[in-house]
Structures are given as C-alpha cells and as structure tokens.
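Record 1 of the preview.
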Amino acid sequence: MNFSRRRLLQGAASVAGAAAFAGPLGLAQSAFGQAAQKSTVLLVFLRGGYNALFSNADSFAPAGTFGVTGTNTMNLGSGLVVDRSTYGTLPAAARSNMAAIGLNHGISSHAPARTASWSNGTRSYALMLANAMGGSAAIKCAIVGNTFPEGPRPAENGVSMQTITDMTSTINALGGGAADPMVPDRAKAAAALGAARAMSQAQLVDSDTSLSSAKNAYDSSIAVLQGPTTTGFDANALATAYGLAPTARAVNSFASQMMAAELMTLAGANVICATSNAGWDTHGDRTGVIVRQRMEGVILPGLRTFTQRMMAQANRNITVAVFGDFARSLPGSDHARCIGTTVWGSKVKLGVSGKVAANVGMPTQNAAGQAYSAAGFWSYLAATSKAANNPFGVNPHSALVLP
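->
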C-alpha cells in the first residue's frame, strides 16, 4: 500500500505524542539518554529585573537600602551574604555551594539587556552551552513554559530549543503514564517519521531557515522514539512533591515549570530555561518588600523542591543560576546596568566574584583584567557543568569552580 507524507505523519502521531511533547509546530519532540554522571544547568530568569539584595545583601546593609538590615541577612561565608527570608531557606547543599557571580553588560533598557544576557547578537548562549555539554539526549535545551529567552537562537550543531507546555507526553515517555493500547510500536513510528522526513528533505534544505523548526522537530521525535524508556516513574507523586494536584500536567505556573524542569533533568536535558513573568520590573520597591514576597511566594517553593531533589542525587551535577534583565538601581528600584546573579550547584564553590556595590554598580573586570561580561558568566556555567568544551572564552570566575 502506498503511503503519502500525510498518512505517514498521521500513523506516527499517536506514538510520537506518547513518547515526546508538543513543540512549536505541534510535532512531537522530547529527550532521552543519560550518562552515568549527568550535568544539567537550570536557568531561572526573572523577566524585568533581579534585585541585588538577593545576591549581595551586605552591600546594602550599612545604609539600610532595599530594607536590608543586620538581622535579615545570612552570612554564608567566603564573603557571600544573602537575604535570610529567601535564599536563607534553601537546602543546606545549595547554601554551602553558592556563589554571587557578576555580569556587567552596561545596559539599562529591558530588551537590549535581555538580548545581551542571552546571546552574543547572532548566537544563543543557552544553545551554545547545551551543545558544548554534549551527550546523547534527543533534546539538549528545553524551555519549560511558553516564554523563550530573548535574542537570536539558531540551532547549534543540530541543538535547538524545544518547549514544554504540557507534561503528559513527556511523562508517558518516562514510563509514568497509563498504558495506551492505541499507541503503535515505537520502532515503526520512528521509521514512519523518518520516511516523512525523507520526503521533506528537499524542502528542508531549500528553506533551511523558515523550516528549521520542522527539521528540529523531525530529528528530535525520531531520536526519542529510537531511545530507551524509563520504568517505575510516579508522575502523580512528582506533582504532589511540587505542591500541585496529582494529575496536574499543564505548565502554567512556576511550580509546574520546576516540575517540568525535573522531568527534563530525568530525561537527560543539558540546559533548561525557566522564565518567570511574575512582575519583576519593580519600580518604586524601595524597601524590597515586593521582590521578597514574590521570591518567597512564587519562585522558592518550586525551586527549593527542585534543588532538594536533584542535588540529593549523587550521579547528577546540577547547576542552578538565577538572574534577570539587570539589578534594581537606587533610590527608586529602577534600572541598573549590571546583574548580580546567584548560582548554586554541585561544582559551585562558595564565594563572590564580581560584587554589586552599595550604589548598585559593579567593576567591569577582575584584577587580572578579565571582563565580567555575559560571555564570562556563561563561561562560568560551562565550567561548573564540566562541559566538554567552552565556547565562551575566558572564565573570569574560575576561582569559584570546584573540581
């Protein structure tokens, strides 16, 4: 019987959906493949800004700015002082392996600052890192939620960004869903999608830019269908751990973003991007009350759970980085020109490199003349994740990387 491309896609759709998740074009996409020692970088981006009271609280204590006092901070050692009611509540493993990493992009306008933090103007830093980390996962760079990082994002050696807005199919792929008698054999579905891709090869080559998402979707779907599965995975228990209803599957809150981040960590992703749109452009927040409340109520419940669960696994090298457009300037919590990022993880050494000062300024480089640039920040993440290679150049924060 002769099959058209449409028939092939229809025949494979159900199994691809069960073995993956729906991507931007509705084609199935997901990830598998883990090494014995697996590195994952979780990037939490607060869209609008990231107050440096979280990363460099001691800079503001003498003048009491942003509501920082001698009693609401926590000295973690090695020069790192954090906000007690927020980061002071993170698991001990995070607090003992945490660093404040300076990023001085010199920009105080939202869109340019975001683009500069996530890209070099032509390439995506997140994709560069995901590619550099290597591995065999079908999806190496996952976006949990529906907000992509700013800036260009062309694929890096076939590595592209894939979104998760519903976890059902990913859970099925991990072996945590109910058996579906309507799902066809994985090998046959992979062959069907491969045939469909072959039929489209000429168009994919001729329109390599406009059809790049379609190409990536085909490749990712085929890779996951050809990969292994995981058994004994309890999706309902996972949802409960993140404070969600047992059957919650939609990625529509930060807690669900962290649940999805754990799913993709288990699925072998290298880089996971979670953007919060909870209102971080906090003009007028002179006492820091607003950002503390949002950090405590929106971000930390899910982030604490992810950190506790993932850092407890000895076979994983987890790095978590929290940052935003820029720090909040004085006196009115407006737009600064730098970011005091916060990073914690298995290979993060306690300390500060590139400190935000009392005036919410930051040096442009370290004592060795190495720039506190966005590329320097991503170079640090490449180092903590033990990437196979580092495409970002010199790491100005190398003293804060554990072997």
